[in-house]
Each structure stands twice: as structure tokens, then as C-alpha cells.
Amino acid sequence: MHSSSELVLASQCWRDVDGNAAAAMRYLDRMGELIAGPKQRSLDLLRLAPGMSAIDIGCGVGRDAVALAERVGPAGRVVGLDRSDALIAEATARAASLGLPLAFSTGDAQALAFADGSFDAARTERVLQHLDDPARAVREMVRVVRPGGRIVALEPDWDTVMVAGADLAATRAVVRHKADCAVAHGTIGRELRGLLIETGCRDVAVELCALTFDGLALADRAMGLADSFAGARRAGSVSADRAAAWWQALEANERAGTFFAAMCGVIACATVGVSP
After folding, report:
1. How far is the C-alpha of 144 from the C-alpha of 141, rounded, in Å?
2. I need a labelling partner for 145 at 20 to 30 A (CA). Which of 243, 266, 271, 276 fits?
3. Residue 119, Cβ neighbours under 10 Å: how many?
């Protein structure tokens, strides 16, 4: 897992969300609907019961933290944490009238301000891909969960992006730009199992989830095809003529009703081991 020496644009944007918070909120709301199935599965794998406590790391606008709070009930406790002041303010406002055992705060996933064993469960989603040190963040998740508690992480693997009916070499150049240049850790999904095992967790299990798209506009919004296409062209990994033909093929497929694209994500879960 490493970043290109080129600026990792997508990750940099998520590290500086407050500079364009409104766009970030719109994106999070759209993606929340698009990946509702994997989200639900990640919540289920936490095995929460009434009275338990949980932390949602990188909580965004708070929709998943609300779902966690509904599961633990009035006797439970949930913390939603994000590095963005704007997103935390929005999450707090959205949840204010719900009467749930839920608090939001800003913080760093790589240095959690909680004591060891503070929670029964910890969850993160689409956050590790953007961090300087995702392994440290995983260690922090494990540290703040009690022995026997649960950890769940849901992350994409950008190297799995596929697009039908277009120049395969050009597609590969676009995908490589997304995985290697646009995101700090574009293949983090496949690394989750190893990261959890390295922390001493047990019962580590991994599931693959897939997103499919039958329209260019939605695929572009979810996967940033146009941005990756433009980046690959600027970097010279695909010629201008070949890049133009690639995008024209996608648009032609859209008009013909044959457009198809997909990508995979990984849900990893584990039980925190007993400290030596």
C-alpha cells in the first residue's frame, strides 16, 4: 500500500472536507443510498445488542451512527467521530431530535482520544483508503474495543473497477490512475484481513461485495470515472486520442442502453483478542 509521488487528489479532498463541505455531504448521501446493502451487512457483523457501546470512525453525516444507536437502545452508547468540523456539525443537527444515546465529536482515526477497551464494537467505512497510516488506524480501533468485542471495516478496492465495451488498455490506464494516484491506498480492501490479523484479532472473516452500474452518470458519480480518465490522460499513461475514443465509447454504450460497469469492495470483521 503506497501513494504515488503525485498529489493523491481524492484523498486530499477528504482530508480537507471543510473546504467543500456541501459537496461532500451530497456525495455521502448519494453513496449511502447506493451501498445500503453492504452498509447493512457491516452493521449486522458488529453483533450489537441493547445496552452495548460502539464507535463509528469517519462517521460523515452520521447516518450509520444513528443506525448503531438504534440498535443499542436507550441503555447503550454510540460515538460518531470524524475529522471534519462541518460534517460533525451536520451529523449533530440531523440527530438532535431523535433522542438517541449518541454523541458526535471531531478526532483523528489514527490517534483516538479514548481509553483502552472503551467500546464493545468499532466500525469504519471508506476511511482507511484516505489515511496516511491505515494500519495505525486499525490498531487504534482494536485498542479502544474491549477483548471479545467486534471490529468491522468496509473499504473499496479500486483496482477492481471494470467497464464493458471499451478499449481494455485505456480502461486499465484509467483504473491504475484511480488506484495508484487518485487515492492514497487504492487497494486497501484486499489488505484488511492482514491488518486485522496483525493486531492479534481472532475470527477474522472477509466478504466481497460488488456494485454494478447500468448508467454512465451514476458510475461516474460513484467511481469518479471522468476524473480518473482526465488524470490518466494528463499523466500520459494513455494518449489523448485513445482517451477521447475511450470516453466516446462509454457515451455510445450509454446511448445504446448497453453500458455496464462494476467494482468490488471488502467487508472485514473480527473479534478483538485477549490482551497478553
Report:
1. 6
2. 266
3. 23
Cell numbers linked to 87: 460534517
pTM over 0.70: yes
